[in-house]
Design a protein that fits this description.
Layout (H helix, E strand, L loop, with lengths): L5 H41 L1
Length: 47
């Protein structure tokens, strides 16, 4: 085993936060695209 220093912990936390934020942004984009696609389908069906 090796000791994990404070700097290494902070880097790991930062990396995880970046991944979390990237995943959240990707999810938000996918949800927006899905909502737009559904709205387009509804508009076409109403014609």
């Amino acid at each position: 085993q090796h000791a994990v220093g404070q700097e290494m912990k902070e880097q790991a936390i930062g990396a995880l936060q970046t991944v979390r934020d990237d995943l959240a942004a990707t999810r938000a984009l996918a949800e927006a695209q899905r909502a737009a696609a559904l709205a387009e389908q509804r508009a076409r069906a109403a014609v």
